[in-house]
Amino acid sequence: MNQPIRRLALFSLALFGVLLLNITWIQAIQAESLREHPLNNRQYVDRLTVPRGPIVAGNEQVAFSELDEESEMYQRVYEGGELYSHVVGTFRTTGANGIEQTENSFLDGSDSRLVVRNFLDMLTGQESQGATVNLTIDPAAQQAAMDALQATGKHGAAVALDPSTGAVLASVSLPSFDPNSVSSVTDSGTAAANWGELEQDEAQPLLNRAFNQTYPPGSTFKIVTAAAALEDGATPESTQDAPEVLNLPAGGTMPNAFGAPCNNGSPDSLAHSIEISCNTSMANWAISLGEQKMAEQAEAFGFDTGEMGIPVPVAPSSYPSGLDDSQLGQTGIGQFDVRATPLQMAMVAAGVANDGTVMKPYLVDSVQGPDLSEITSANPEVYSEAVSSSTAEDLKDMMLLVTEGAEGSGTNGAIPGIQVAGKTGTAENGSGATHNWFISFAPADDPQVAVAVVIEHGGGSGNELAAPVARSIMEAVINE
C-alpha cells in the first residue's frame, strides 16, 4: 500500500515542480515579451490610469494627457489632429503606434531611468508622471508640408532633414487621419470602430507613406547614377550617347520624355543630362558602369541596408540584382525594380548637401523627466560615407543647373535670392498615372534643409507638382 502512495506523492510533487517551473518561466523569463506583445492590450488599459508625458514639437505640446473625471482615466489629446498623426501615432485602449509606441516606456514612466524619480514621488505622495519626449520636428516646416501637399489634391508624402545632423524637420503623409477620433477613453467602442474603418479604408490613411511606402524613384535616382559615374572617374563634362530613343542591349527601347535627343544628336555631358533629365544618356551610364558599381553606390546612400528605426520603423529601400543590360539601363533612371521611400530619397539629397556624408535620420531630440532633468539627448551618427566631398560638390553644381540652368527641368523648386539644388522625377509605376518627385536642398552654399516629395499618380511632372511643395518646406525652414 505504501508503494502506490509513494508513487502518487512523487508524481504529484513532479507536477507541482513543473507548475513552479512554468510560473517561473512566464513571470521571470517571458514577462517582458508578454508585456510588450502586440496582442496584450492590458499594458495600454492599465496605463490610462496614470498621466503620460507630453510629446513636444518646437515649443508645442502635440500630444498630452488630461484627466477625465467621469472615468478617472487619462484621455490622450492630440493637438493639430492629422498634422502630426503619422509621426506621433496614437495611444489607444487597443494598442499604440508611432512615437507613442516606440517611446512608451518614457511616456508612461516605466523606464528604468525614471525609477528614482518615481520612488521620490511615492515618498512625497505625488502622482508619478511620464517623461517628456521632444521631437526634432519643426512645426513651421511640418505645417508648410501639410498645406502644400493638400493643395495638390493628391496622395503623397514629404520629408525634410537637417543634412548636417539627420534630424527629421518635417514628415507628412497624405491621406492622414485625426488620432483624437480613435483614442477616446469614455467611448472606447466608437474609437475602436473608427480605427477599424481606417484600417479598411482603401486610401490607407494609416499608412505612413514617408517612412513605410516605397516607390520607383524615377529620375531622382539619376543623382545616384551620376554619383556612381563620378566616383568611377568621370567628370561633369564626360559624355554618353543620348539619342531620342535608346535601343536597349537585351531588347526593348527607352525614349526621352521630351521626344528628342538630349544634345541635338551629339553625346551629352553628365552635367547637362542631369539638368534636362536625359533618360537615354543616364541609361547608358548605368550600362557602362555595370550592376556591381551601381549597386554599391545605391547601398552607400542607404539602399539594401535593411529596416531602420529612427526610432519608428522605416521600410528598406532596394536596388535589384541579377540584371540584364536592358534592366540595368532602366535602373539608371530609377525604374525597373528600384524602390525607395521618400525618407531614402531625402537621405540622398542630404548626403550630397553634407559633402558626401549621410547622417542617420532621427525623430527624438531629447527626453526630459517630469522635473525637466535631461534623461537622453540626440547624438547625431554618421550613417554612411556615400561619396567623396569632390563628387558631392560636382553633384551640387549639377543639381543647381536643374533649378537655375537655361534648360533646367526643376525651375519651380527655385527660391528667389537663395540657391536651390534639386532634381525632378517622373516615375512609371504600372498602376496608373505617373508618380511625381522632387528632391532638393538649400541654401546650396550652406545647406539647412534637404527635402524629398512624392505625389502619387499625379500624372504630371516633378517640376509641376512636387517642386512647389519642396519649395514651400525649404522656405519655412530657411525663413525662421
TrEMBL record:
GO molecular function annotation: penicillin binding; peptidoglycan L,D-transpeptidase activity; transferase activity
Assigned keywords, A-Z: Transferase
GO CC entries: plasma membrane
InterPro entries associated with the record: Beta-lactam/transpept, Beta-lactam/transpept-like, PBP_dimer_sf, PBPA_dimer, PCN-bd_Tpept
Superkingdom of the source species: Bacteria
Gene Ontology terms describing biological process: cell wall organization
Keyword DNA-binding found: no
Pfam family, one: PBP_dimer_2
Domain Penicillin binding protein A dimerisation: start-end pairs: 52-133
Residue ranges annotated for the Penicillin-binding protein transpeptidase domain, each copy included: 156-475
Name of the protein in its database record: Peptidoglycan glycosyltransferase
